[in-house]
Amino acid sequence: MSKPASPSASRPADADRRAWTAAAIARIEADFNRSADTHLIPMRLPGYADIDVYLKDESSHPTGSLKHRLARSLFLYALSNGWLRDGRPVIEASSGSTAVSEAHFARLLGLPFIAVMPRDTSPEKIAAIEFHGGRCHLIEHARDLNSESERLARETGGHFMDQFTYAERATDWRANNNIAESIFKQMALEPHPVPTWIVCSAGTGGTSATLGRYVRYSRHDTRVLCADPEHSVFFEHYERNLAGTASAAPTPCGGSRIEGIGRPRVEPSFIPSCIDAMIKVPDALALAAMRWVSAALGRRVGGSTGTNFVGVLAVAERMRAAGRSGSIVSILCDSGARYAHSYYSADWYAARGIETEHSDALITAAGEGAALPTLPWAGTPNTPG
User: Fold this and answer.
1) Is the pTM of this model over 0.90?
2) Which stretches make up the Tryptophan synthase beta chain-like PALP domain (predicted)?
3) Given 3.40.50.720, 3.40.50.1100, 3.40.220.10, 3.20.20.240, which CATH number is that of 67-167?
4) Euclidean distance between CA atoms 13 and 34, whole angstroms
5) 384 falls in which pLDDT band (50, 70, 90)?
6) Average pLDDT in the 6-14 region?
7) Cβ neighbours of residue 252 under 8 Å, at least 6 residues apart?
């Protein structure tokens, strides 16, 4: 039987590991230091003269989406916890954008990266992951993403990043240029510098948690609305949380058609108490809003941005009905360039039976000031109009 290594014998390996971790963190911080912040774009809504709307354009990150912030935070969190090792793969369960961003940071550190994702993920996202040096491991059912990621991590000796568990805790929600701090800095010189509402959507729940925590920590009166897509359990879970029945499992669903947001199960990073209200958005309406925003900006955006924008219209209508002026900030999550084969393809809509004409008319009218159809809404008792 071999003797256990003495403490002095283990020091060089430990020192090498700590040196590699320190160098890895320095590379990520240098990458951040040479990257600019994202733009805050004012957007005029003709029917809401006293309400200013802004879109935080997260598509301008180096990897093209809001998930760049999350990936950076997840890597720094994993490194600081001692979970990453030189030469060992990083594995993530992702439908695309998080994997694109994590592939970027893995390549920055010289680590192999494997994205476990549904087989029907858009080819544009698969190509983007591969462009950044990642490998795509495609599976049939979204419900198996985590178990397959855990299996790969065991077999390869790698680390499963697990965005859906760690998103809400990996981000420094008090500062460090998180998305909330960035929004408030950029709003400082606007007519209504403290937004009445910030509207986001939930994939992991990390962004809604960061926004909700930051506005409370900074003692702002801003409210956070989370817009949930049609095939997702978050809205039902939030309703049950308000009613004190959150222990009951939400009705299972097949998984969201709006890539990057919505989930078939409640994820650990979704914290209902961090948000003030939720709205349930039909996919047809979300995608009509996506097309409306794309036309207004002169460039394509993704479906999650459309989902958010339906939430913007809903809170703008509530503010107007209450006679309130103010500002609303939402998130432009990613570019529509990633969805040429889906949201910008007539065949995709036909195959899924999603109508477009009626929804386009509703969103156009809402942008000009007409009320949206009544959508499911849930809010805390003190949620304002």
Assistant:
1) yes
2) 45-334
3) 3.40.50.1100
4) 32
5) low
6) 60
7) 233, 264, 265
